[in-house]
Design a protein that fits this description.
globular; disordered N terminus; about 625 residues; about 25% helix
Length: about 625
């Protein structure tokens, strides 16, 4: 399965090698070659296939190079984008006033400051540390385990060197000493697959007004199993109100790493989970709850430091925007997985804050706790020859948001820690499914050049990784959702209106001037002039959204149904189908082929096609 970003990576390597001043980039080892996505025509072939050469094998020269390039990266992160002059003409703002309202889209939004994740063998990591006299302190955290004694550890930088510089030093030293098993990643911020965090669009709510707890409006309680996403227009699970497949996911466990509307009190470092039966809303007339009961095992991990979360509105204090509350995001995801595989056991691991903020190490801790739990629970099966994570699915409706050109920011091209952990879990039998992301809208609607609707961006990390099933969002009309990135496969995720359907509001906000205005208007857009026209509750608009479960933020015992859109919600539909295939006896390493083999034919922008249980 081709991941399109691999082509981009190779092209970038070629560019880097041709630049005299940047003879090699500060990167981890290149991932293995992959094969193209069927049906996708790649117009540019990678000219460089070999591993790039290091700038030097002399630690002093490596140090000088990394000091220079990391400063360049910090400078690039602080650059404020130049606004469009045509946009200025559409506002009451002058060009001189704009810089006060703008903020770099990268500054403070990429990673936790002064933290790195070190992956590999302890002796190799210590050799790199010693070569540059790095001052690193390990926190009071259990290492993340990998194969053959390899680990991932969180380290605090205790000297004056930057995250970029430490990552570069590791990358260059290992390029010069390829036998060393060591890598350093920034502790990237993670969010539910919308660039900048939050869902939808940004945590500060530029483009959508969420319900408290998340969602884009209140759905009718009878709509859940009757929604288009589960019917013939979607995945073919339901046929005239009846389930069209016999498999139910019995014996399979699905881990959802996400937000959670609940808190589970626990001691630091101790296993922290609670069996929780969710009471589904009941239709007063029919007495139908819309689904069988949902039994959740909810996990609480120590939350990220809220002072470091990019969800805090750092863009401008005078703009008076509040953080979004999307604590229902994970429950919404879990409910859709449950709809497809109602007899599976679902674990909801809270690794993201209520506004969607999280970091890479917190997600790795969630993966580790789930792995430990399942390994302990399957000891008898393992003795019988099964792998410890056989019959498990990991749902990751979240993403690491690297810049489009990370080498320019002196950041690694790959995220070694996450890639290696997911590799290890799949080697133990897990099936991993992740959201492709929602970045493929056309920015700056007044610009002369628009983003090609037939050329969405590659999937985000981890959906882009070869061992992960990346899920794009399809629409009621079996097209790509206007926001959706490329995926390996597609499932219903909803849609937005394009500017060909709704003219742009001439009163653009400061956020629009900053380049955040998009040619893909999701339901509940912040622009008040369009609120009356585009809400999912309105007759005729239901097919733009999916329906899932949420709780009342003021009363956690009260449940309701919500509308929402995004690749976040296409993903659990595929996770549920993976659970069905595992129950049917498909080996874990063949589940992706089983899913790709029963899709509706579709455009290449939807990967292999739209999943359909009726095929």
């Amino acid at each position: 399965m081709m991941k399109l970003s691999k082509i981009r990576l190779a092209t970038l390597w070629m560019t880097i090698l041709l630049l005299a001043s940047l003879a090699a980039s500060c990167v981890m080892p290149v991932p293995p070659d992959v094969t193209p996505v069927p049906g996708v025509t790649v117009t540019s072939e990678p000219a460089v296939t070999k591993t790039p050469e290091p700038v030097s094998d002399d630690p002093a020269e490596i140090q000088a190079y990394c000091s220079e390039i990391s400063q360049h990266g910090k400078d690039e992160q602080a650059v404020i984008p130049k606004p469009s002059t045509r946009m200025i003409g559409q506002t009451d703002l002058t060009a001189d006033a704009l810089p006060q309202l703008l903020h770099s889209p990268y500054q403070d939004l990429i990673y936790v400051d002064r933290q790195v994740l070190l992956t590999g063998q302890e002796a190799a990591i210590n050799e790199v540390i010693g070569a540059f006299d790095l001052q690193l302190r390990y926190g009071d955290y259990h290492p993340i385990t990998l194969e053959e004694g390899r680990t991932i550890r969180l380290a605090e930088i205790a000297d004056e060197r930057s995250v970029e510089e430490v990552s570069c030093l590791f990358g260059q030293f290992v390029l010069a000493n390829p036998d060393l098993d060591a890598a350093a990643d920034p502790n990237y911020f993670i969010s539910p697959a919308w660039r900048g965090g939050g869902s939808p669009w940004t945590q500060n709510g530029y483009w959508a007004s969420n319900q408290p707890g998340g969602g884009l409006g209140m759905a009718d309680e009878t709509q859940f199993l009757n929604q288009w996403a589960l019917g013939k227009e979607g995945i073919g699970l339901m046929n005239d109100g009846e389930r069209a497949v016999e498999s139910t996911g019995e014996g399979v466990t699905i881990a959802v790493l996400d937000t959670s509307p609940w808190r589970t009190p626990c001691l630091r470092g101790a296993p922290c989970s609670k069996n929780r039966q969710v009471n589904w809303p009941v239709d007063e007339e029919s007495g139908d709850s819309g689904s069988s009961k949902l039994d959740l095992i909810t996990w609480e991990l120590e939350p990220a430091n809220p002072d470091t979360c990019p969800g805090k509105d750092r863009w401008n204090e005078d703009l008076d925007r509040e953080m979004q509350d999307i604590s229902n995001h994970g429950l919404f995801v879990a409910s859709l997985a449950h709809a497809v595989a109602p007899q599976s056991t679902i674990h909801l691991l809270r690794v993201l804050e209520d506004d969607g903020c999280g970091d890479l190490f917190k997600v790795l801790q969630g993966l580790q706790q789930f792995e430990d739990y399942m390994t302990a629970a399957s000891e008898g099966d393992v003795a019988g020859g099964n792998m410890p994570l056989t019959n498990t699915v990991v749902n990751m409706s979240l993403g690491v948001h690297l810049p489009d050109n990370p080498e320019e920011f002196a950041l690694p091209e790959v995220v070694t820690a996450l890639n290696d952990k997911l590799n290890y879990m799949t080697s133990l039998g897990a099936v991993v499914v992740a959201a492709a992301g929602n970045d493929s809208y056309s920015a700056d609607p007044l610009a002369e050049t628009k983003t090609d609707p037939d050329a969405p961006l590659p999937a985000e990390i981890p959906a882009v990784e070869s061992q992960v099933i990346g899920v794009a969002a399809s629409t009621y009309d079996k097209q790509r959702g206007c926001f959706s990135n490329m995926g390996d496969v597609a499932a219903p995720g909803g849609n937005g209106l394009t500017l060909s359907q709704v003219p742009p509001d001439p009163k653009l906000t400061a956020a629009a001037v900053a380049g955040d205005y998009v040619n893909c208007i999701v339901p509940g857009r912040v622009d008040r002039s369009s609120r009356e026209d585009f809400w999912c509750e309105q007759a005729g608009n239901e097919t733009y959204c999916l329906v899932g479960l949420g709780v009342d933020p003021q009363n956690k015992d009260k449940t309701t149904y919500l509308y929402w859109v995004g690749t976040s919600f296409a993903t659990p539909l595929v996770s549920g189908i993976a659970a069905l295939r595992l129950q049917e006896g498909v080996p874990p390493d063949k589940v992706d082929d089983a899913i790709y083999g029963s899709v509706d034919s579709a455009a290449p922008v939807l990967g292999e096609g739209i999943v359909n249980l009726g095929n």
